[in-house]
C-alpha cells in the first residue's frame, strides 16, 4: 500500500474536524514523502490545509459546506506540534473567561517557543516570546485571570468584573491557585486572594 493510501486510511479513522500534523504520520515514511502525500490529498479535496503544517478532514454543513477549524483550535494544535507552552493574553483572555463578548480578530499568545504570526482565514495568531515567569502558571482559570486583569488595568476593573473573576477562581484547584497567585503582580494578588477562604479580610 502506498504512503498516500496509508495516510488516507489513518485520516479516515479520525473524527471529522480533528486537526492533524505531518509528524502524526512520521512512522509511515520520510517527511518529504508524507508532505507530498498530504499535498496530493489536499489537491483532491479530501483534506484542507488550515495553516502551515496543519491539516483537517473538514466537517460538512448542509448550509455552508466545509467547516474550517477556529483560530483557537489551530493555536492549540501548533502548541502541541511544537511542544511549547502558551498563555492567552489580552482580549483573547477576556473572551475566554466570558468577561468580554467580543471575539478578538487577533489572538496573542505568550510562548516559550519561536515568535511567529500566521493567518487563519480572516484572523491572525501571534506567538509572542515571553519570559519563563509568565508561563509558569498552572491553573487553566488562574493563568487566564492574571492576563485578563493585566489587560483591564489596575484602575479600570469594575466591581462586576471582580465578582465574575472571583466566581471563576473558586472553581480553580486551590493548590494551583495558591501557586499562581505568587506569580502575579501585587495588585492582582490582592484580588485573587479574595477567592481563597483566608483572603476575605
| Individual helix count | 8
Question: Spatial order of the strands in the main sheet?
Answer: 6-7-9-8
Low-pLDDT windows of residues: none
DSSP strand count: 9
Helix content: 40-55%
Return Rg in Å.
20 Å
Shape: elongated
Class inferred from helices and paired strands: alpha+beta
Order of helices and strands: HEHEEEEHEHEEEHHHH
Summarize the biggest pleated sheet.
Answer: 4 strands, mixed
Pfam family, one: DUF6088
Organism: Algoriphagus halophilus
InterPro entries: DUF6088
Protein name: Transcriptional regulator, AbiEi antitoxin, Type IV TA system
Produce a short descriptive summary.
This protein is 41% helix and 18% strand. It has 201 residues and is an alpha+beta fold.
Describe this structure in words.
The chain is of the alpha+beta class and 201 residues long. It folds into three domains: 3-67, Arc Repressor Mutant, subunit A, CATH 1.10.10; 70-86 and 101-133, no CATH class; 136-201, no CATH class. The chain is built from eight helices and nine strands. It has helices spanning 3-11, 31-43, 71-82, 90-97, 140-152, 159-169, 174-181, 186-193, and strands at residues 19-20, 48-51, 54-56, 59-61, 65-67, 86-88, 106-111, 116-120, 123-129. The chain has a four-stranded mixed sheet with strand order 6-7-9-8. Strands 1-3-2 form a three-stranded antiparallel sheet, with helices on one face. Strands 4-5 form a two-stranded antiparallel sheet. A hairpin with a 2-residue loop joins strand 8 (116-120) and strand 9. Helix 1 (3-11) packs across helix 2 and helix 4 (90-97) crosses helix 5. It is elongated.
